[in-house]
């Protein structure tokens, strides 16, 4: 929301009762909120209340201060200490944000909120989510990120309609409950930097609704299930920083994966070239929608899958791949080819099908006959090979311009 529009809205709310904040429908000014909570002067008029404190602040209130706020729908309490029975909270709560939640688990009275749509308990002290599960049929968003002591996920059987599950940086989390396979509407699972997690339940891979799976930084995560190829809605799959040494062949059936996802999967293959050549899915079958492909950062040998079937590929980059063999099956759609620090390449492949676009080559390459290059509008030759063509080395690289 634009700042000016937000300020206009706040001024409208202030005008509801300028001198008595407890009579307003929304409270966000820290001074007003602390006054209302301290004096226990809350009223039915309050529908939204937000108090954002710092970790170092030491503010504590009894849950009794919410007794009269029977219409409260939005509650945000960041680093606020509450004492007493959480049953005093409004039964109409829909959005609850309680960062820095201090309890080790959630009591059953806390979750007697059947209308909750979103729970945000980032930076909590939770060890486990709850002792006694309670049906929260309307809950769609659960965010427990940065809860460093959380060791296991909730039992999801009482949370049937979760759509967004965010467990980022739960560094003690070692287990995802198998009931996650019952979340038929789950669209996003973010497990970034869950460093003790080594896998997901088999039931998870049966979900058809998943669009985003983030495993970035899960340093002990070893394997994706073979059934991942059945997750037809998956568009984002981030696996950088995992312990994965292989990619399931069924990944090739995921037609909608975006570029960062494909890039990460390909890098797994580059890091572990000893994996059999046919283990990584044939690119034309799985990745024919690729427009940009960057194969970089491997010093080991690599047998590339066939590239000619990538009918939409426009930009192809090879860099720092010491043993890359010459590829002679470039797709006809290619507009830009960059080959940098691939020291085993002696001959650039035939690029006669590339029209009016860019080729970059490094020291070790012997250029194809210039007749094959006459259609290119730009060639970039790195300074270490300029002398081979009788060109001065007073700059790092030069562009050659062709004007067919």
TrEMBL record:
Domain of life: Eukaryota
GO biological process, one term: defense response
Gene3D superfamilies given in the database record: Ribonuclease Inhibitor (3.80.10.10)
Membrane spanning stretches: none
The name this protein goes by in its record: Putative leucine-rich repeat domain, L domain-containing protein
Organism: Rosa chinensis (China rose)
Source lineage: Eukaryota, Viridiplantae, Streptophyta, Embryophyta, Tracheophyta
């Amino acid at each position: 929301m634009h700042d000016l529009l937000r300020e206009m809205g706040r001024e409208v709310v202030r005008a509801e009762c300028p001198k008595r904040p407890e009579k307003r429908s929304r409270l966000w000014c820290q001074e007003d909120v602390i006054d209302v909570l301290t004096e226990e002067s809350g009223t039915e008029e309050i529908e939204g209340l937000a108090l954002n404190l710092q970790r170092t602040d030491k503010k504590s209130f009894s849950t009794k201060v919410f007794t009269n706020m029977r219409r409260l729908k939005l509650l945000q309490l960041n680093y606020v200490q509450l004492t007493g029975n959480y049953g005093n909270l409004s039964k109409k709560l829909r959005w609850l944000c309680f960062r820095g939640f201090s309890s080790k688990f959630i009591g059953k009275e806390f979750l007697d909120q059947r209308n909750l749509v979103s729970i945000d308990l980032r930076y909590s002290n939770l060890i486990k989510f709850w002792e006694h599960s309670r049906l929260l049929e309307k809950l769609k968003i659960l965010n427990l990120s940065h809860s460093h002591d959380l060791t296991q996920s909730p039992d999801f059987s009482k949370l049937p309609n979760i759509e967004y599950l965010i467990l980022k940086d739960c560094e003690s989390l070692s287990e995802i409950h198998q009931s996650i396979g019952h979340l038929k509407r789950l669209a996003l699972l973010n497990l970034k930097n869950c460093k003790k997690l080594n896998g997901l339940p088999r039931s998870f891979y049966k979900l058809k609704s998943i669009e985003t799976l983030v495993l970035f930084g899960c340093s002990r995560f070893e394997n994706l299930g073979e059934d991942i190829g059945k997750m037809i809605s998956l568009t984002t799959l981030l696996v950088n920083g995992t312990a994965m040494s292989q990619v399931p062949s069924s990944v090739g059936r995921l037609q909608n994966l975006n570029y960062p996802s494909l890039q990460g999967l390909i890098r797994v293959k580059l890091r572990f070239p000893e994996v059999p050549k046919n283990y990584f899915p044939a690119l034309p079958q799985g990745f024919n929608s690729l427009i940009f492909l960057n194969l970089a950062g491997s010093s080991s040998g690599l047998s590339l899958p066939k590239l000619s079937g990538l009918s939409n590929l426009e930009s192809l980059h090879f860099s720092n791949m010491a043993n890359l063999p010459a590829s002679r099956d470039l797709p006809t759609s290619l507009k830009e080819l960059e080959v940098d620090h691939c020291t085993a390449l002696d001959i650039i492949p035939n690029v006669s099908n590339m029209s009016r676009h860019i080729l970059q080559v490094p020291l070790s390459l012997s250029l194809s006959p210039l007749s094959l290059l006459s259609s290119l509008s730009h060639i970039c030759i790195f300074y270490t090979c300029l002398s081979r063509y009788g060109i001065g080395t007073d700059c790092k690289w030069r562009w050659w311009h062709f004007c067919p």
